[in-house]
Design brief:
It is built from one helix and nine strands.
């Protein structure tokens, strides 16, 4: 099964894949896609330019790695949450954590999770 490969968050949102790639063995679903990491925020875990297998969803568990949006800006980050706050953090400590609390929790929209 071939799945789309997106080189930017905008392409992902618009379903504008420049190419396709074979899904890993044992992984299925029409909600899968590869995202080519476009910065070094998740290094050393995900190098810039590496393909990351993702699944479209709006739900994630604490400890998940997610693609999320705030307005028109997209991020790929690790996520943790409690009933009153969300924290998104990069593997690369040069990037600041992103926090949401209270009514601002709705500002962050989960778009996909990384499939591991």
């Amino acid at each position: 099964m071939d799945i789309p490969v997106y080189s930017s968050f905008e392409d992902m949102e618009n379903k504008n894949a420049a190419k396709t790639a074979a899904a890993p063995t044992g992984v299925e679903g029409d909600d899968l896609f590869f995202f080519e990491m476009n910065d070094d925020s998740m290094e050393p875990r995900f190098a810039k330019g590496s393909p990351i297998l993702c699944r479209c969803t709006q739900k994630a568990k604490p400890g998940s790695t997610v693609i999320f949006a705030v307005g028109q800006k997209y991020y790929l980050r690790n996520m943790t949450y409690d009933k009153d706050f969300l924290t998104f953090f990069a593997e690369n400590k040069e990037y600041e954590d992103i926090f949401f609390a209270g009514v601002n929790l709705r500002s962050a929209k989960i778009k996909a999770i990384v499939v591991e």
